[in-house]
Specification:
Blueprint (H helix, E strand, L loop, with lengths): L1 H18 L6 H14 L3 H11 L14 H16 L3 H13 L2 E2 L7 H5 L4 H4 L3 E2 L1 H18 L2 H19 L13 H13 L3 H14 L8 H6 L7 H7 L5 H12 L26 E12 L2 E8 H8 L5 H12 L5 E8 L7 E6 L2 E3 L2 E5 H42 L2 H18 L11 E12 L1 E11 L2 E11 L4 E8 L2
Parallel strand pairs: 1-2, 3-12
Antiparallel strand pairs: 3-9, 4-5, 6-7, 6-10, 8-9, 10-11
C-alpha cells in the first residue's frame, strides 16, 4: 500500500510539474487590454497598456534587450503611435521590430520542423507571416510620407519590393495566397511619383492595379506615362499605344525615313503622344489614408481530433494518420490545441472625405482582414498537422507512463490513471502560439485629390454601428508637392 501511495505521489508531482503554467493566457492575454482600449476608442490608454507589457514607463523609452516577442509588442506600439499621429516615434518602433523579426517559412519547412516551434512552450522566436512582414514596410512608408520624408519612404518602398520578390521567388503565382498588398504598392508608387522617379512609380502602380482597382490612378497613369518610356504588358493594356513625347519625336523621325516593308503598324499614333508636363504642376496632391476596425487576432481553441485530421490530412504521413486515428479510437486523443483567428466587431465601416467642404471619392486601399484570413488559411492545414504530431507525442508519452508504472507496481489501474493525468497535463502545457499583430487595421481607404497650392481643410467622417465621428486636419501643399494624412480609427 505504501509503495502504491509513493508512486501516486510521484505521478502527482509529474502532473504538477508538466502542467505548471498551462493556464497562462500567453501573448493574447498580454495584449487583450490594449485591444479592448482600441475598440473603445481609447488610443492613449492602449498605448499605456503596451508600455506596461514592455515593462516601460514612457512611450519614448525602448527595451534594452529585444527578443522576438518584444519585437511584436513594438509592432503593436508602432501601430498605436501611428493612430495617435506620433509618426516619427512610430517609425522608430517599426525599424527596431523589423530588424528583429523573422519570417514564418511554412512553405519550405516540414510538419516535424514546424511542430517544434508553433507552440508557446517551444516556439522561442516569433516568426511573422508574410503579410505582417510586408505591412511593416508599408505602414512605415506611410509614416515617412506623413512626415514628408521621401528619402526614408523610398528605403521602405525598396524593402517592401525586395520582400515581395523573396516571397514569390521571382514568380507571381502565389501573390494572392501570400497576401501581397496592393496598399503597399500604391504607397510605393506614390513615393516614387512624388520623388519624380516616374518609371519606378509606374512599376509599383501597375503591381497595385493587379491586386485592387484604384480609380484614383486613372488620371495619374497617363500623366506619368508621358514622362518615361517604361511600359509593360499591364500598362499597355490600360494605356493603349500612348508614348512619351520625347520618344514620339524620335519614333516619328525614324518612321518618316522608312519605306513600307510590312513593319508592324500597331506601334504608333506617335503624333497623339502627350507632352511631359506633370513635373511643372501648379497644383499639389492630398492623399488621405484612413483605416477602420481591427484585423482578426489569434485565440487559443480546442479542435475535435476528427475535424483536425480532416483539415490536416493532406500534410500527415500515413503512419501519423494511423496513430492519430488509433489514439482517437482509444479515447487518448480527443482534442488538438490550436490558435484560431477571431474577428473583432468594427464600430465604423465606411469613410467619407471632404477637402475644403467638397466631397472627394474614397476607395479601398486594402481589406486587411481578408489578407490576414487568406494568409492564415494558406498555412492552416500544415499548422494543424504539426499540432497533431505534437499531440501524438503527448499520447505516446502517456502510454509509456502507463506501461512503466503498471509493470513496476503490478497495478493496471494506477498505470492507467498515470497515463490519463500525464497526457492531460502535457496537453494543457502544450499551449498554442497566439502571437500575432493585434493592432492591425481591418480596412484601409485611399482618398486622393489635386488641389491648388496653399492651405486646405480636410474632414474625414467615419460611420457605422458606433455612430459618426468627424476628424478635421489643416494641411499646406506647395506647387507640385503633396500632403499625406494617415487617420486611423482602430475600433
Amino acid at each position: 500500500m505504501m509503495n502504491i501511495t509513493k508512486q501516486m505521489w510521484a505521478v502527482a508531482w509529474v502532473v504538477v510539474t508538466l502542467g505548471f503554467g498551462g493556464g497562462c493566457a500567453g501573448y493574447a492575454g498580454k495584449v487583450e487590454s490594449m485591444r479592448f482600449a482600441l475598440q473603445a476608442g481609447q488610443k492613449d490608454a492602449a498605448l499605456g497598456y503596451i508600455n506596461e507589457s514592455l515593462d516601460l514607463k514612457e512611450s519614448d523609452q525602448y527595451p534594452v534587450d529585444v527578443d522576438s516577442e518584444t519585437s511584436l509588442l513594438l509592432l503593436e506600439r508602432a501601430s498605436v503611435k501611428q493612430a495617435n499621429n506620433m509618426f516619427e516615434e512610430s517609425a522608430y518602433d517599426f525599424r527596431i521590430a523589423d530588424n528583429n523579426m523573422e519570417l514564418l517559412d511554412v512553405k519550405n519547412k516540414t510538419v516535424g520542423e514546424i511542430s517544434k516551434w508553433i507552440f508557446s512552450g517551444d516556439s522561442g522566436v516569433y516568426r511573422a507571416p508574410p503579410h505582417e512582414k510586408l505591412l511593416i514596410n508599408a505602414l512605415n512608408m506611410l509614416n515617412y510620407l506623413a512626415l514628408g520624408d521621401l528619402e526614408s519612404a523610398r528605403v521602405e518602398a525598396r524593402r517592401f519590393d525586395l520582400m515581395q520578390q523573396y516571397l514569390t521567388d521571382g514568380t507571381e503565382s502565389d501573390l494572392d495566397s501570400l497576401g501581397i498588398l496592393g496598399f503597399g504598392d500604391y504607397l510605393a508608387g506614390f513615393t516614387f511619383e512624388m520623388s519624380k522617379r516616374y518609371e519606378q512609380a509606374l512599376q509599383h502602380y501597375s503591381d497595385a492595379l493587379d491586386v485592387n482597382e484604384y480609380p484614383s490612378l486613372s488620371s495619374v497613369l497617363p500623366q506619368l506615362a508621358a514622362c518615361t518610356p517604361y511600359r509593360n504588358d499591364r500598362l499597355n493594356q490600360r494605356l493603349g499605344p500612348l508614348q512619351p513625347a520625347s520618344i514620339a519625336s524620335s519614333a516619328a523621325t525614324s518612321a518618316a525615313g522608312e519605306s513600307d516593308t510590312g513593319a508592324d503598324d500597331t506601334a504608333a499614333p506617335v503624333a497623339a503622344a502627350a507632352p511631359c508636363t506633370y513635373p511643372d504642376r501648379e497644383t499639389g496632391t492630398v492623399l488621405v489614408v484612413s483605416s477602420v476596425g481591427l484585423a482578426p487576432h489569434k485565440k487559443a481553441v480546442r479542435l475535435p481530433v476528427g475535424a483536425a485530421v480532416v483539415i490536416a490530412g493532406a500534410y500527415l504521413a500515413p503512419n501519423q494518420m494511423a496513430q492519430a486515428n488509433d489514439f482517437a479510437v482509444k479515447g487518448l486523443l480527443k482534442w488538438v490545441n490550436f490558435a484560431e483567428l477571431v474577428q473583432s466587431p468594427s464600430q465604423y465601416t465606411t469613410v467619407s472625405v471632404q477637402v475644403d467642404q467638397s466631397p472627394i471619392s474614397s476607395e479601398y486601399g486594402d481589406n486587411v482582414s481578408q489578407v490576414v484570413k487568406d494568409s492564415f488559411d494558406k498555412i492552416k492545414g500544415k499548422l494543424i498537422a504539426a499540432a497533431i504530431v505534437r499531440m501524438i507525442a503527448r499520447a505516446v508519452a502517456g502510454a509509456a507512463t502507463n506501461q512503466a508504472i503498471s509493470s513496476g507496481s503490478g497495478k493496471d489501474g494506477l498505470g492507467l490513471l498515470a497515463q490519463v493525468l500525464v497526457e492531460g497535463a502535457m496537453t494543457a502545457a502544450d499551449t498554442p502560439d497566439t502571437r500575432s499583430w493585434n493592432a492591425l487595421p481591418a480596412s484601409i481607404f485611399f482618398s486622393r485629390v489635386e488641389v491648388p497650392a496653399g492651405n486646405h481643410t480636410v474632414a474625414v467622417q467615419f460611420s457605422g454601428p458606433g455612430g459618426n465621428k468627424v476628424i478635421k486636419k489643416e494641411v499646406t501643399v506647395r506647387p507640385g508637392g503633396f500632403a499625406v494624412l494617415p487617420i486611423h480609427q482602430l475600433r
